[in-house]
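Quick question, first post here. What does this chain look like in 3D?
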Amino acid sequence: MIDAKTKLVALIGNPVEHSLSPIMHNAVFKKFGMNYVYLAFKVDKEKLKDVVNCFKALEINFNVTIPHKIEIMKYLDDISKEAKLIQAVNVVKIDNGKAIGYNTDGIGALKALKIDVKDKNVLILGAGGAARAIAFQLALNRANVYISNRTFEKALKLSDEIRKKTGTKSFAIPLDRKILREKIKEMDIVIQATSVGMYPNTNETLLYREDFRKDLIVMDIVYNPLETRFLKEAKKAGAKTIDGLGMLIYQGIESLKIWFEIMNEEEMENIMRKVLMEHLSFNRSSV
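> Answer (accepted):
Ran it through. Tokens below.
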């Protein structure tokens, strides 16, 4: 029940109407008996500085989503090591009047994989914001990172930056099925980090059954639909597949750990996954 003691946690971005973050965070608050409410706010770029100052004054912790993850950095008082490397912030903690930025997207993907990635060969499809966060987090955990992108120069730039900033092996690969099929023979993990296959374009995929192996781990960061065409093709080849809810859930868990030092990851994951699955199932049945 919301009362005069209820505290606010926020999400800012544009658009935010589609976000599932309020659903999963409010479920955790309710289950843990925390007198907080999580709300999403549509914020224009020119209002970012005012919003940060307002949240600092009111001591409101918040998440940041597109398109503000980079722009927000200029208005913060401090930024974590990982966020500096990634050059994007998706979590802000207000601590003693200071706004401190973090990035939990990469660690969210890493935790969704649930394996030690040290010395693993990981192919990331895409070189945008999500791919960048995942790539740097993998590199910080000593994985060998391969980047493939439609604009090859962008993949090359990201792989060069990873090598220079982390000292980890990183390579760029053209987004060409014939080339990728050969390269995948050397991979342990393949991560689809683009919007390809997202609703309503659910029949799209960058790779097909014959491109995968049964001993691969294959993850797609898209969660609508939950099982993308990309994952269906990987499953046909016998690969282990991981849906996009894992990354969404774990980046949210990491946010809660930063804000409130809640450490019960397993319980939080169960709560979030249950409520998100119910929401996604209801919306599918309502279409």
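The chain has two domains: 7-103+247-286, 107-243.
The longest helix spans residues 265-286.
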